[in-house]
Amino acid sequence: MLSKDIINQQILPHLSQGKRGTRCKADYIQIVKAIFYKLKTGSQWRELPMYEFFREFPYSWQSIYYHFNKWAKDGSWQHLWIALLKKYRSCLDLSSMQLDGSHTLAKNGGACVGYQKRKKAVTTNMLFLADNEPDAHARGRFRLDVSL
Question: What number is the average pLDDT over the span 70-87?
Answer without folding.
Answer: 91
